[in-house]
Amino acid sequence: MTNTTHTGGTQNAATTFASGFTPAQPVLTPIRDHAQQLEQAEAGVRKLAATRNDRWYPLFHIASNGGWINDPNGLCHYKGRWHVFYQLHPYGTQWGPMHWGHVSSPDMLHWRREPIMFAPSLEQEKDGVFSGSAVVGDDGKLRFYYTGHRWANGHDNADGDWQVQMLAEADNDELTHATKRGMIIDCPLDRVSHNYRDPKVWKTGDTWYMTFGVTSKEHRGQMWLFSSHDMVRWTYERVLFEHPDPDVYMLECPDFFPIRDSHGRERWVIGFSAMGAKPNGFMNRNVSNAGYIIGDWTPGEAFEPDSEFRLWDWGHNFYAPQSFVDGDRHIMYGWMSPFTPPIPMEDDGWCGNLTLPREITLGDDGDLHTTPVAEMTGLREHTTELGPTRLDTNELKTIMTDAQAVEIEMTIDLRETTAERAGLRVHATDDGAFTAIGYDAQTQRVVIDRQAAARGDRGYRAAPLSEQELASGLLKLRVFVDRGCVEVYINDGRQVMSSYSYPSAGPRAVMLATESGGMVVRDLTVHTLASIGLADKR
Fold first, then answer.
1. Which of 244, 354, 439, 455 lies at a C-alpha separation of 20 to 30 Å from 136?
2. Do 518 and 391 touch, CB atoms closer than 8 A?
3. How far, in Å, CA of 244 to CA of 41, rounded?
4. Tens-digit pLDDT profile for residues 203-218
5. Is the pTM of this model over 0.85?
């Protein structure tokens, strides 16, 4: 660690501020045998998996065989396979020393477990191999950029942490092994208040760029911009973006990418999880909230926003999304984050799963839409067309008696619906517990309501509908119900909601439901879904 006292330096110039913490070559300081650490981590996961309780373990969402997971990392399509890495604590079901777990697929439908990729083995990462991204260089080789983490006092977070950016290079086309190159960007402790992590790397023109989240010395949430011509030696350029809200002290898991609308106009999207944002009405109801801003960017300059901060997902449990480019598609995974106790799956040998892969598009309305990638229709095993239906006041109608893994497509006719709430009850069990999903006429929003949940956190979340959506008189819902979670895609992905839902023992029914009025459903289709192949204990 170069602890240089920096003088001068501005946000838009690489001065002496830049030279003191970007080494000419990676700094490699091994302190443990990496292969041995990986073997121990694999044994830790196997031990937890051996007694894993599968009552809520997902059938079609990615989760670890055992242990805690959080952020998706290193997302990429490489040599004919999709790869998803993720933050993993292999020795327990709560957050702990971070490793990188790994699964891969030839088609985004059938997944297999791969060896754990990274364990803490270098001085700069001795307390955790934190989040990062993957990128293919001009030479066709894949590189991983991630954050090395260590506690400032050597044993806990009482005195904060010390974080730096690291480089590793894949050793084979299967991405089952990588060589750590070491630290490439140190932390200028006189400019940073500890948080300094989660690098995203991309190329624009002839230059490689990197950004990551920072808590400045003034406790403001920022993203810094670096540039490189060889992907090894990096130069500080400027603050790419500072959040205007002084309560936001860290922009965690940042993302930054260009996207074009149907007319070919390019915009830039800056994404981050806003740590410290205060709840405001329906906004920012979770512990931390992941969202994006649309704007413009010129290489080397600051990002110029022209939209407000918008949530990626309005559910109870969504955080730390990461995107990657797959051909012409922008694909994103998020982490379904169990931040708020009680967290009952902690007792089951595993904790946490990722969302479905979502394609990001820029609509003609100027906003981002996120829908499940087209491949997800390949999970459908059996389809039942239930057609139009009408429910009277306070009516319940069972459409499935036991749903383990299903996708429900329905269109509610809002002009003919008089209910104050109308939609679905999923994970409905004999003890009266259920999770409600539907339209709330008083708020004119789509809600996920867990007030009747028997386990876990409760409360409700509410996603907005635009004036145009309301004026159309039709509400399209595409609802995915797994063993312990739900995802709701609203009007072709104009909004999304992701929440955990822990059903009681016994059959898990799906019902149509109305409250204080009737409902007219234009069309209703139910698909039973196949497993993606990760639920077996192996």
1. 354
2. yes
3. 41
4. 999 999 999 999 999 9
5. yes
